[in-house]
Amino acid sequence: MSRRGWTVAGIAGGVVGAAGAAAGVGVAAQRRKIAAARRSLATEMAEHAGTPPGTVGEEMSVMADDDVRLACEVVGPADGSDPALTVVLVHGFALDRRTWSEQRPYLAGMTGPSVRMVLYDQRSHGRSERAPAESCTIEQLGRDLDAVVRSVAPEGPLVLVSHSMGGMTVMALAEQHPELFHDRVAGVALVSTSAGEMASSGLPGTFLSRRNPIIRTLGGLAAWQPGLVETGRRALGDVIWAFTKRFAYGDRQVDPRMVDLVDTMIDSNAVGALTDFVDTLGTHDRLAALPGLSGCEVLVLAGDGDRIIPWRHSEVIAEAIPTARLVRLPGVGHMPMLEQAGIVDAELGELIRRSTERTRSGELRAKKPSRRPPAADGETAAEPAADGTGALRGMLRGAGRARRGGRAPARGVRARKKDRP
Q1: Which helix (H) or strand (E) holds 187?
Q2: In this structure, are strands 297-303 and 416-417 parallel, antiparallel, or unpaired?
Q3: Would you put residue 400 in left (φ > 0), alpha (ψ -120 to 50) or beta?
Q4: How confident is the model over 54-98, as pLDDT tens digits?
Q5: pTM of full prediction above 0.90
Q6: Cα angle 99, 103, 104; round to 5
Q7: Which of 419, 242, 415, 417 has the alpha carbon at shortest distance from 332?
Q8: Which residue ranges are recorded for the region named Disordered (predicted)?
Q9: What contacts 24+ positions apart, CB below 8 Å, involve 241-248?
Q10: 362 and 272 in contact (C-beta within 8 Å)?
Q11: CA–CA separation, 295 vs 336, rounded Å?
């Protein structure tokens, strides 16, 4: 082994050893308790297995512009009717399309209007192909979404529903193809996401920092010895499950099935594939692209108990899109579509109905949009930032430091609904 190899191994050994020691001090009993609960949960889920009727889709692959294969699924209306529009669901970092498992039955069962769903796994996530590290950027994710739309939803009105890094993906698409949001995109949902300054503070600040030696070492080790890293992750599986419960959800009494779902999604993605996205999440900045969504029906929704992307990030997005509907879910964490599925379903249903009315009123062009080439690396397709962007950036920088609280939303759900012209 080379000297460099021994150096990396030594650092990695120290990291793994420290993690193991920390896990072993005072947590053995807790791990046994969690393991017993998970075994019981697995048995219960096996006994009640089954896919809700009308939600089984057609599996297919879409090739991205750099020939990375993206796993995709199309689900038609449960009643077999002609859909009024296509809803494209875009998941977040470390997850996959199962993120929307609670929304699938609701959307498939919608009538007046009925909708067609398109779900896919982001590159290096879920069933999609592992992509080269240099291609794991928000900019490329925007191009991937464009490839999915062109391949499986080339015509007709669209509603884009996104979560976390998926919201950043939609912003990148708006930056690259503003004409698409003028011609075809009738509605956009931005759930628990951010327009920038992700690395400013809090848990994301620690995780995404370029100066974090643990994350950097882990990424290097995952590239050099992926088997060792995955073995270590499996050994700490119960600890990771407890960590997932704490940081993905705001409700301490959340259904363990929901924790297990998120934990399973995270576990299905290679550690190295996830560390490939650290830099792009930390440098993501698309505040200037948000005004391009103003011509759409926009829903901005998040929980004020989110420890991953603080609530203030959603407020900043809504400030940049004056016509947006801003929904605040008290005490809810980073996965509102699972933690408060009923409320999220209802809000998405209203967004889709408003978007359908927009298409019927002729506010969207009926013809298929002409497309220009996407922006090259380092270029920005969006218009220059409007006056006030600097102030919004300052609000973003303080998002992680802002205290929770403020005025409570009406009936504990809605903070406000911005006036639409």
Answers
A1: strand 185-191
A2: unpaired
A3: alpha
A4: 577 899 999 999 999 999 999 999 999 999 999 999 999 999 999
A5: no
A6: 95
A7: 415
A8: 354-421
A9: 241/34, 241/38, 242/30, 242/34, 246/307, 247/203, 247/307, 247/308, 247/333, 247/334, 248/308, 248/333, 248/334, 248/335
A10: no
A11: 26
> What would the two tokens of residue 80 be?
């077999």
Written as six digits, the tokens of 99 are 């993120």
Name the token pair of 14. Answer: 């120290």
| Torsion of the alpha carbons at 175, 324, 350 and 301, rounded to the nearest 10 | 80
DSSP state of 329: E
- Residue 61's DSSP bridge partners are 71
Q: What is the pLDDT of residues 287-343, one digit of tens each?
A: 999 999 999 999 999 999 999 999 999 999 999 999 999 999 999 999 999 999 999
Q: What CA–CA distance (Å, rounded) separates 21 from 376?
A: 47
| AA identity, residue 299 | L
CA distance 158 to 150: 12
300: which 2 tokens? 């901005």
User: How many residues in the chain?
Assistant: 421
